[in-house]
């Protein structure tokens, strides 16, 4: 674990990426794709498309486009929607967040449709006060407006917020939006830029409690 930056203030509000930082969505993508290698290619293509698109377009359209770009059938996106409730939290996620909620206000900022974002948030088992989706805001991360919407939803100032990213794109985007960022990276992604930007990098969500102690 990379230690936290000394400049990071003690947060009152913690915003989380949902589909990578809190849920192991990687395993579902891998299973639908028929293996880890193809699943990773599909997911990284999706992330590249999503973080470049800006204004909201239907989430499943991006999932379909990214599948076809790596040689998967377009119906893979429909299978993902059908199996969405199979998403599982990373180990300890619900317990960690319920404990954090005793002293902090918690929310989610996610690149997802409204319906699928709400369904996914319910799977974490945490008392979120706000679930902000790309569809509800009209923009995908890393547009600063979606991070700002998450902050506003919890009536917080940017310097009161800690953002827990789940992908390197999110680390850079949240930092550019003025939030303090740490990176939960259980998928073992490599990004020197994100590692240099994040105040801390860890692969077990239970380490977040230690950072905030």
Core attributes:
single chain; about 210 residues; alpha/beta; Rossmann fold; 2 domains; 6-stranded parallel sheet; about 45% helix; globular; disordered N terminus
Folded structure, characterized:
It is a single chain. The protein is an alpha/beta fold. It has two domains: 137 residues, Rossmann fold (3-Layer(aba) Sandwich); 61 residues, no CATH class. It contains eleven helices and six strands. Strand 4, helix 9 and strand 5 form a beta-alpha-beta unit. The longest helix has 18 residues. The radius of gyration is 16 Å and the shape is globular. The N terminus is likely disordered.
Query: What fraction of residues sit in β-strands?
Result: 5-15%
CATH architecture of the largest domain: 3-Layer(aba) Sandwich
Number of domains: 2
Strand order of the largest sheet: 3-2-1-4-5-6
- Categorize the overall geometry: globular
Major pleated sheet: 6 strands, parallel
Count of helices?
11
Query: Quick one: CATH superfamily of the largest domain?
Result: HAD superfamily/HAD-like
- CATH topology term of the largest domain: Rossmann fold
Structural class: alpha/beta
The overall strand count is 6
> Element order, helices and strands?
EHHHHHEHEHHEHEHEH
**Average predicted confidence as pLDDT:** 92
Contiguous runs where pLDDT drops below 50 for at least 5 residues: 3-9
Specify the CATH class of the largest domain. Answer: Alpha Beta
Distance between the termini: 15 Å
